[in-house]
Amino acid sequence: xxxxxxxxxxxxxxxxxxxxxxxxxxxxxxxxxxxxxxxxxxxxxxxxxxxxxxxxxxxxxxxxxxxxxxxxxxxxxxxxxxxxxxxxxxxxxxxxxxxxxxxxxxxxxxxxxxxxxxxxxxxxxxxxxxxxxxxxxxxxxxxxxxxxxxxxxxxxxxxxxxxxxxxxxxxxxxxxxxxxxxxxxxxxxxxxxxxxxxxxxxxxxxxxxxxxxxxxxxxxxxxxxxxxxxxxxxxxxxxxxxxxxxxxxxxxxxxxxxxxxxxxxxxxxxxxxxxxxxxxxxxxxxxxx
Length: 289
Ligand code: FVH
Known about the structure:
Blueprint: E1 9-12, H1 16-27, E2 32-35, H2 43-48, E3 51-52, H3 56-59, E4 66-68, H4 73-80, H5 84-87, E5 91-94, H6 100-112, E6 116-123, E7 135-140, H7 142-155, E8 157-160, H8 167-194, H9 200-215, H10 218-227, H11 237-254, H12 262-273, H13 284-288
Parallel strand pairs: 1-2, 1-4, 2-3, 4-5, 5-6, 7-8
Antiparallel strand pairs: 6-7
The structure holds ligand FVH.
């Protein structure tokens, strides 16, 4: 069964993200009820056509799925626990960022209260919602995802990863780990070049094409990891060690802190000390997992 233009939706939480999601639902023609703990944040949405509810109980009085966009795992429980009985037989889509185990805990809590539960990880900032480039990763109830996919696609590209409610969150945080490593690498490089009087903007002109070119190697890294065979390296750990040692020396000489680069050196050193120096750099995943 697919949803229709007339599917009503409730949004709990009108922070920056909740407001963006609710506004997109209203623009998409969905009858949208909104609630926020602190009153007053619904003014623009109500002016645009949303129904403002004074209490959570009032907000979930409508039919249709309930989207929670709150601060964290604790705030989801603080909001939903008091109305758990009223939620029996209803559908909850939790777009609050929670760790995978927290998402699984919420799915178990929901099942105990006969609530259909779908978890989501938002890969976008509020300004991207409803625009190309935004995506939301989902896992949990397949039936809920299938029934409301059309509505979810209004918000962002919607991808479903299976019935494990924690898997979307795991993807979310894996992607964010990749992002943070990339940005902190840029910050380390910018700090190094600053000591030579090079502005970050000048470094960025080099960094973007370099990082883009290096990213093309990721599928080959993945192939080696999935094969589990690290014995035919393109460049072994022994090859990378002098380069990383040199980056550490260059950073130290320039007075740049080693917080970003030292853990990478430690990973290399540990594997080489354990006799893995002739194996591929990708073996590092075995050290981490
Ligand atoms: N904003 C972003 O760029 C990121 C993008 C990726 C996903 N995150 C996650 O989305 C969740 C909501 O984020 P947000 O940007 O809307 O966050 P805030 O603007 O800080 O709004 C937080 C809302 O949560 C309400 N709230 C907090 N604690 C409670 C509670 N104990 N009970 C009920 N509601 C609570 C808060 O209400 P109020 O302070 O206005 O009364 C806001 O509505 C989040 O998980 C991000 O990690 C966004």
